[in-house]
User: Which sequence fits this backbone?
């Protein structure tokens, strides 16, 4: 049986500009499985990728990691210049059941201004 790829191997493939966007998006989705919280810095960088499909895949992967650092990344993505990316960040926060609690406890001034 083939060995699962490491985070470094996945990142190296992600940097291959010759790969189709759907192939890169599929690689992004693998990051939480191999790096879990260690994958968050890579996923954060991918939120700046010029390809929207990569950014959206990164948001889903961040949600899969979960926890406060992931929530921070998703909250920051609410201000993304691409409206679709910002909308998906909202959806990922809702999937973590975090957005309502965050807004509900009075901490959500930034969300209310989005």
Assistant:
């Amino acid at each position: 049986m083939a060995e699962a790829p490491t985070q470094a191997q996945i990142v190296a493939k992600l940097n291959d500009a010759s790969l189709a966007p759907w192939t890169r998006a599929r690689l992004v989705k693998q990051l939480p499985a191999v790096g879990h919280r260690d994958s968050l810095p890579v996923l954060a960088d991918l939120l700046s990728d010029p390809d929207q499909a990569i950014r959206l895949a990164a948001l889903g992967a961040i949600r899969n990691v979960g926890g406060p650092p992931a929530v921070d990344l998703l909250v920051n993505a609410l201000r993304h210049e691409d409206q679709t990316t910002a909308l998906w960040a909202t959806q990922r926060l809702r999937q973590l059941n975090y957005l309502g609690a965050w807004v509900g406890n009075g901490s959500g001034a930034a969300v209310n201004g989005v």
Residues 52 and 112 are 24 Å apart (CA to CA).
